Amino acid sequence: MPLALLALAVGAFGIGTTEFVMMGLLPDVADDMDISLPSAGHLVSAYALGVVIGAPLLAAVTARMSRRTVLIGLMALFVIGNALSAAAPGEGSLLAARFLSGLPHGAFFGVGAVVATGMVAPERKARSVSLMFLGLTVANIVGVPAATAMGQQLGWRATFLGVSAIGVAAVAALLFLIPRDHAPAPATGLRGELSALRSLPVWLALGTTVAGFGALFSAYSYITPMLTDAAGFADASVTLLLALFGVGATVGNLLGGRLADHSLRATLFGGLTSLVLVLALFPLLMRTEITAALAVALLGAAAFVTGSPLQLMVMEKASAAPSLASSANQAAFNLANAGGAWIGGLTLAAGLGATSPALAGSALAALGLLVAGTAYAVDRRAPRPGRERVIATHVPATPETARHG
Q: Residues in domain Major facilitator superfamily (MFS) profile (predicted)?
């Protein structure tokens, strides 16, 4: 695999760290700024809103720019947003800085996926995307715990300065490791990119992302009360258990990338089916500490097996203009985050028990499987060569791919 993929992974590591570390720092921020915990929780929403708005917007306005330049610019914006977060004097300015930090998130992953697949031979496209996403999953194992500990020891502002430093390292890596001719300006421009969003298969692929990852966040948003109330873990054990989720997500991500290079659609169906079963078994698995720990790891693995297939499915359906659609998939991921958490919360509010969000997640994963099946049926009604076996090579070839093929 090209060394340039390391630059994308470093950027993904920084983005994953800043996205998830806020959950652990909320009490510190609330105390320091003398605001309530629910008010501090708006900082999580501000970042997610930035992702949802920034992903399609920035991908669209940079449509005629070199993708290498776009990636560097997005990571520079990421550095600025986190530096402003560290310096924010009050709640309002911190909300604005978190929103700014979220703007480049989706576009970075979307454009990065296009660049990653252009660096490798056709049969390695899914693995190239999974290696970029590796930075995101490793952030849950190393970055988030380390950044949380830094914030607790040195103050939450130090955490965002540290994340800014990661962003600077990513900018340097992008400058030195991605050659200019590996990410030229796309020929389609804004009109071509926007045309991708008129495709029903693209919307079905995005719908699969919303339902499939909504299933994950329906359960994961409430994993702490499940582990403490249902499985009987002490509060101090939760951080280690969440690292297990990161391990599972990393394994699932790498496995999904390898399998999707052989059969993208079969990997997607298999991952969603696994997610349905794992979440449906949560009430049983949460009865003992050992099986609960296993459930956390399996949840990460089952969910992230689908990550690379979903990203490539969107790119394949928008083959003439993949950047905007690929970025929109990241917006869909964050909609899944908000929607899944809301649905899981409804089950708790209804008094259905600590593990009820997982059952709601199982239903959402089943819905994702249904949407993916509908997309397959639509494909079958529009015959084309190779339609029986959708693989990553359907992502359009680029001059870079031709040189590596």
A: 4-380
